[in-house]
Design goal:
Length: 214
């Protein structure tokens, strides 16, 4: 798999000579070092790549120290690129005995490819399931209702459809309750207070159950 330097995966640790060349070019492009001598940069970074460092990890080390503090001011034009890089990476050597662990964990090109392919599959657009016959009729009715220009007619049609749904909930053989039926139901549940004609006070009468005569 061939990459352009600007598109080299920053977390991938280069393993082949061709990958190292692309990674070195990617680092110089991302660091804005067009004047850097790629041969010297490669000689400097080869041990770091062998130790599992990626381009993202190296750029992080250029900007920050192992304790998280800033390294200092960016490179000036008067500084040689690979010497500037060597000075910044010196703080990431383990007391001069070896290289410290990278601040960002790297991965192989094969691992990156599998992760990238899995993410592409997860974010791929899914095909919508086919509608049933009832769904097709509902969509056609909804579209027909939406294309009507008269808002009054749309409101009436919506009311008719709502009434059809309510009528479908009725028990077969029974009529829909009227407004008077609703009032009678309320009167049976809520007792009507009686007012004394003499004093005007409301009598709190407790409803007594009716006795049935056998």
């Amino acid at each position: 798999m061939q990459f352009e330097p600007s598109r080299w995966p920053g977390r991938v640790v280069p393993s082949t000579d061709a990958d190292v060349d692309i990674a070195v070019e990617s680092l110089c492009v991302r660091a804005s070092w067009p004047d850097a001598d790629r041969r010297w940069v490669r000689r400097l970074l080869e041990p770091w790549f062998t130790a599992g460092w990626s381009v993202d990890a190296l750029l992080t080390a250029v900007d920050t120290k192992p304790d998280g503090t800033r390294q200092g001011r960016p490179r000036s034009r008067a500084q040689v690129a690979h010497e500037f890089l060597r000075a910044r990476l010196r703080t990431w050597t383990a007391d001069g005995a070896g290289l410290a662990s990278p601040p960002l964990k790297g991965m192989t090109l094969g691992e990156w490819y599998r992760v990238n392919r899995r993410n592409a599959a997860l974010h791929a657009p899914r095909r919508s399931a086919a509608l049933t016959s009832e769904g097709e009729r509902a969509r056609a009715a909804s579209r027909a209702l939406a294309h009507r220009r008269d808002p009054v007619e749309r409101s009436r049609e919506k009311g008719r459809r709502r009434q059809e749904v309510l009528d479908s909930l009725l028990v077969p053989g029974q009529e829909a309750p009227s407004f008077a039926d609703s009032w009678r139901l309320v009167a049976e549940i809520v007792p009507v207070p009686r007012v004394c004609s003499a004093c005007g006070h409301v009598r709190n009468e407790v409803a007594r159950p009716a006795h049935r005569v056998a």
